[in-house]
Amino acid sequence: MELHLFDKQVYADRRQVLKQNIGHDGIILLMGNEDSSMNYKDNTYLFRQDSSFLYYFGLDTHGLAAIIDTDTGEEVIFGNELTIDDIVWTGTLPTISEMASMVGVGETKPYDQVIHFIHKAITSGRPVHILPPYRPENKIKLAAWLNTSLADLAKYVSVKLIKAVVGQRVIKTSLEVAELEKAVNVSVDMELAVIKHTRAGIKEYELVAKAHEVAIANNARLGYPAIITTYGQTLHTHYYGNTLQEGRMVLSDIGAENAMHYGGDLTRTFPVGKSFTSRQKELYNVVLDSMDHAISMLKPGVRYKEIHLAACQKLVEGLTDAGIMKGDAADAVEAGAHTMFFQCGLGHMLGMDTHDMEDLGEQYVGYTDALKKETSIFGLKSLRLGRELEAGFVLTVEPGIYIIPELIDRWQAENKYADFINYDVLNTYRDFGGIRIEDNFLITDTGSKLLGKYLPKTLEEIEGLKG
Amino acid sequence: MELHLFDKQVYADRRQVLKQNIGHDGIILLMGNEDSSMNYKDNTYLFRQDSSFLYYFGLDTHGLAAIIDTDTGEEVIFGNELTIDDIVWTGTLPTISEMASMVGVGETKPYDQVIHFIHKAITSGRPVHILPPYRPENKIKLAAWLNTSLADLAKYVSVKLIKAVVGQRVIKTSLEVAELEKAVNVSVDMELAVIKHTRAGIKEYELVAKAHEVAIANNARLGYPAIITTYGQTLHTHYYGNTLQEGRMVLSDIGAENAMHYGGDLTRTFPVGKSFTSRQKELYNVVLDSMDHAISMLKPGVRYKEIHLAACQKLVEGLTDAGIMKGDAADAVEAGAHTMFFQCGLGHMLGMDTHDMEDLGEQYVGYTDALKKETSIFGLKSLRLGRELEAGFVLTVEPGIYIIPELIDRWQAENKYADFINYDVLNTYRDFGGIRIEDNFLITDTGSKLLGKYLPKTLEEIEGLKG
User: Fold this and answer.
1) What CATH homologous superfamily does B174-465 map to?
2) What is the pLDDT of residues B217-236, one digit of tens each?
């Protein structure tokens, strides 16, 4: 089988930078992932390697771990060679040392030797830097290796290592941007297939089938569970059993993750039938205006939180024109009234992970020591990216309007935001659903660049696809 | 959203039988599954509920557990109600108590109350029966609840509960057979789509894409990772990057798991081009003869191990006719020489799990106290089913011939089975690949019944599909 890798020097260079950033300060332990079981141990989900492991060590197979000794410079990959049973059941692979040499690592050891390296470091009083584990099997292993309890494991997570890894991964190189463009291009083809297949009478899962078909036929997978729904107000619904009805819209939020594990993340909202209704058109253009305004603000030095708030204000202005909101738009956003319609954030970092590096902590990825992430304000607590943009960031822009009946009922009962929301009018939209439009951008020295092929997004262009 | 359930009485009856079989003997704890993370906590694989939980409690949502008190008859489902954040992000669901009542359970509690029920039982000296956990997050929870270490958890697994659960689940009711037939029918459509799409020059993953498309468009999923390969000798390969070449075959082992989580498990082997070569035809018919012979033996009272060995002998006879093997066929099977070509078992139980109940232990599912599973004999150690067949069993029949160059090299170097294998001839088949043919059967009172629609399996029928 074929391993998908950059040149070995890419990985060696990345590790060199990491070592420089950590300084002479003990050992770095990076955990690869295991296979995850579905309904019994050997029936496993499609393997997904840890992204930081991929970034520094590239190898996309289960059962690996790696150590970088920042004092000696030593780099070791730990893994077990295949047995004849493995070969009979799952085929041949290069040996561990052959694979290691493909990513510029000269030293390999059996997997169970990791613990000796860790104990040696601990015994000699040297730090062991780990990233926050998100898989339970890695938590179990780390707790055993570090001789601590699962409950205390969080204390061993190295903020220094998190910051060093984020600092590198957050700036995408041209090699990475090329992979991201490939992934976005497949994502565009997935969206086109879904839009063209949409018609009244079929089930949402028939559209999900198209998305998977296009992704897999391009040697990719879905980077995150498809959101393809006629109830677009549910931000992350993964239920696909509804029948499409003329007059309603479909929201399709899908992205391909390619063989190198870089991903796209696109959303389009389109009519089940050939054309949008006038109400749909009106609110669609509110979202589109908000999006275009946000895109126009993308450039280094601007805080994404500012762009988010500006996009929110555009949404409020449009909703006010539509008679659903009222009062001063800036005041409404200040008060948080827009969160009746836009409960989440404008976008997030994108890379190997759809929410790039979310496992390392949104505070470290999307914010800075000077700009803390809100943790309790509805709306802002879901803004994953707030910090000043820098050239090399890759991110999503994805405003939306979501009409959530349960939220209307709760907040109307509390008379919440009554100065800004025309509840009488809003209640006539209860069954509207939701609209989101999302594209992916690279921050350049002077502004931004749309990643991948252009995917139709105006009303006319979308209706044209359905003609 | 819609929950896929049998009538509530079905679940109540199943639990009643379980209680009777356990007697007054403490509490039974059944763990539901959690979402499994891919590359960060909130990016999850498609949820798969535990099959025994589905069998007794039906509910196909994450974050549930259930207790059956065999002394008092009390049944409790533990789970947490949705918050408004859950509703905004993932939509509405019935409440826990609404869901519980759909499966005939009157009592529900918040999830963190499980531990109190367990501690109460332990304190009063009553047993807590658990099944073997296969998911690491459930291991972590169970160890905490039972106040033991992960290493000692296995001691708490209840063989009595395993045997009671297997005893019920192994006999499929007509309701279950109907679901299995639906799943097999979708699996047949998947195979037909894959076969018809196969042509020289495309990649294996383009066929995988078709399998997923058909499954998902039928509100199903793949019950296990697709094996679609032009290197069919690798029994469970999940690499799909090879280009299909005229003259080679494709082995496609795929199965749909439907909305009720019953699954099919089919395999066909077919030419990349329009027709098989004469060598392929010869060995294909060896496998088909072995399969037909095995099917003719399916009936209550016959040990599946006997059928396996009879099928092996048929394979050896055919391989002898082809000049690849030699000597007495029965002696060859007795010696194990057939395992050069057929390294695995003839089949396995099929139900909600592809290898049904494999999490409960193959010894308990496929064998009996009187008939122990072999653990070290190559070939037999991979025979998942050996016991006497009973009416109501559902199983696969899947003989094959697999030409594994690495195995030839190892065994020829050892002169292994030299009395039975013509290594000179065999080496001319090194690049042959593998052939497997697999269908699913219900054991009836008098014999067996093919599950689902007939999927072409003779040479002529297969070539007819490619015409």
Assistant:
1) Creatinase/methionine aminopeptidase superfamily (3.90.230.10)
2) 999 999 999 999 999 998 88
